[in-house]
Specification:
By secondary structure, the protein is mostly helical. It folds into 2 domains: 119 residues, no CATH class; 207 residues, no CATH class. The protein has a 3-stranded antiparallel sheet with strand order 1-3-2. Helix 3 crosses helix 5, helix 9 packs antiparallel against helix 11 and helix 10 runs parallel beside helix 12. The longest helix has 32 residues. The relative contact order is 0.11.
Length: 354
Amino acid sequence: MTIIQDVLRGDLSYEDGLDALTVAPAGEVDAELDAAVSQAVDQLFRGGWQPAELYRVVARLGNPLQAHRVTDAARSYFTKFPNIDPRWRAQVEELPSAKGHPDRIKGLDAALSLLLELRRLPAIEKLIPAPGDAPGKRLRGADNRVLERVRALLAKAESTDFPAEAEAFSAKAQELIARHSIEEVLTAAPDETPLARRVGVDHPYESEKASLLDAVARANHCHTVWSPELAFSTVFGFDADIDGVELLYTSLLVQANRAMARDEPVKGKARIKAFRRSFLVAYAVRIGERLERATRQEIAQHGDLLPVLRGRDLRVREAVTRSFPRTVRARGSRVDSLEGWESGRAAADEAELA
């Protein structure tokens, strides 16, 4: 069917193409759209995209029908290969399923516009093997027992209604992460290399959330590069450190949202927006201070490790430069609400770190 390709090439306007698809034989149209979406998704997977990343960037467009199309295409792609990297498999299995049957015109509109959106996405660095690729090298990662203890502490921090209790749980979690990081340094192989992992940064307030992720990363021997147009930050570091960063960032964001909802002003849309932005800026700054202090305390007990840590940090920075030779330092967000700033710092003091 040439209608779809004519729209994608720009030889036919979107409106005229959609009109033509609505009157063409339904079976033929559906088969061609499914094939076109599958081909576009397959190409992006081969170009470095992972299922969770592609779903997230499409879901940001605000049309759930398009996001569900990505889920269906990812699961179809997944079944074509016998050997799948477990990280890739886990992402596919966690994608949400569609509910109900959409109106046909809305479904055609969603599929056709999705194809145009997918064509605009660039190839990105392949961080884990896609199905059909040769298996990647075995990663050390954080000890599962340590991760489970950290998860358990952070779950308690997220569930408690008592700020002091949440702070104690979070502080213990960061202590465990920092201590385990030092143990990893002591047992690391000489040829161990830094890695990268993409962590989703969702709207609203993406800049402030990216700053929080960066604060958590820097306190745990990692560096980040934010790609706002693609809805993620790339975290560079050694594998066990990245595990800790991702766990801690996710939990702190939950704690921040809960505290922000508790403290925000009751009235005034502009006032609430300024409050939330200022809250998250202050929260990230204060969390960074607390995490770095906890990390320094652990390192102080191993003063002979400082030269090793500097060497590892240099290797992480070199990995950042190789992947992103041209980066721009993001401008800090404005603080327009003293009330939000003070509340954000207070909430960061309450947050569970370990």
